[in-house]
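As a warm-up, study this chain.
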Amino acid sequence: MTDSAMPSKLSRPAQHILHPTDFTQQSDLALAHALRMSLTNHANLHMLHAGKDTHEEWDEFPSIRQVLQKWGVIADGASRSEVTDLGIGIRKVIGLEPGVVESIEGYCQRHPIDLIVLATAGRQGLAAWLKPSTAERIAEKASSFSIPTLFVPAGGRGCVSIDSGEVSLNHVLVPVDHQPCSESEVERGLRAISMYGGDHANLTLLHIGSESKFPNVEIPDGPWHVKRVVRQGNPAAEILAAADDCQASLIIMVTEGTHGLLDVVRGTTTKQLLREAPCPVLAVPADRR
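Now compare it with the structure written out below.
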């Protein structure tokens, strides 16, 4: 990164995490991921619901204290101040705009959000308003604000246990290409692991194409076991197949407009990944250099 370049949202600890919720069980796994990262980074968790400001809707927001009690982080009957003592802030908000995408966009314009964590339909279940087509639109908006977005498929395997809050980040799949920059991509992947609180993982670097054109990727020193895999075929289909083969806990994709095969925020690749990914997908906008 040059001195004049703007720092990536993942080059510093996330301080403001946005979790849009539709008050359904399909959002519970995404909430677990957002809360775990809030605890690890001592961050503020913004829970956003798009709808009218009614007493009934305020009562439907998930209880963070109940989740933390279930995880054994705080004792049963703990006060709100004990949650604050953990170094996190909880904010529950009703969206001002009439639509889901518009509410998220408006909130990101008004607040310094570092990461968005939301549920998608996934292979099983169907989040009421976070359908693949909606998730794709949210990804486009987040990309325009350079905000990394974690898509958590309802019914899929996650990195965080709903029951205990434990992190299981055993295998991370990182598709690489020459554009966007692969080394920058891997660096973001390793930072994402630390964002969860994990300190090691198996990394599979996946290149769709020929072995001779595999990008030259240098991995920073650390407790990583790195494997290189080459596949040929449709990018989305091969990424999904590789994720199944290695039982990936997380897929990390760097996006850069309509540039190159790693653009997952537009077109059929996005739709297929968001509908069929067996694990969370972290879409990170590439650094603008």
